[in-house]
Amino acid sequence: MTISKYIKELLSYEEYAFSWEEIKNKSDKSDTSLKRELSRLVEKNEIVNLRKGFYLIIPPRYSKQGQLPVQLYVGKLFKYLNREYYLSFYSAAKFHGASHQQIQRDYIMTSTPSLLNIKKASIDLKFLTTSNWPNKNILDKKSDAGYFKISSPALTAVDLIHYQTKLGGLNRMLAIIEELTEEIDQYELGDLLTWYPHKSTLQRFGFLLEELHADEKLRGQLFKHLKSVKCFPVLLSSKPGQKPGAVDNKWKVDVNIKLDSDL
To answer: Could you tell me if 137 and 191 are in contact, meaning their C-beta atoms sit under 8 angstroms apart?
Structure first.
């Protein structure tokens, strides 16, 4: 079987990616012949060599952009890598209706060790890692290519706050957090509080919930949880070498930046 024929077969049942091993198993051609055909297809922009041994198919309807929506291939990519993952940060927020900003990059959380970011043509994937893998708050969403994993609204919000310095700072994400709070319910927040390990992030989250006039029940639920554990003053925006000073709010958050949402 030629690679072109196999690609048509994959597209017929909405699969948009394949590995070198798959091609080898489907064809009786030599490695040299297969690699030559792959190179031709890459040159014609019909496929993209996303990572060594892993290829994306770019069907005609996506050829102008030169990229695929991440939800069409992320599940297969991480199955190939044999790694845990979920779509996170701004990418997850978009699926929860908090698409206040146009993002050109896709953000994916994965388990340690770290993965190198991928930037090829119009494809831009940023990977962040955590050693505290969630046992809750990861949702399965359906795309044309099957299910993919995504952080829940509450996990998306705390991830944004926790990784703020790597993602453009709090003011860049404040409007998105405000929109996400409308999607969070007490049940989901309760799930998060059973396992989430970063108290300082929860303190910042509680402070922002109050500033954004979020649901009083959510604020009360979070404050009750924090009262049951020992909390120390924290900076709203983490700054190397800066320590929190006096705090005058119940969340014990030193407000060291001026908040400015453009929502």
So the answer is: yes
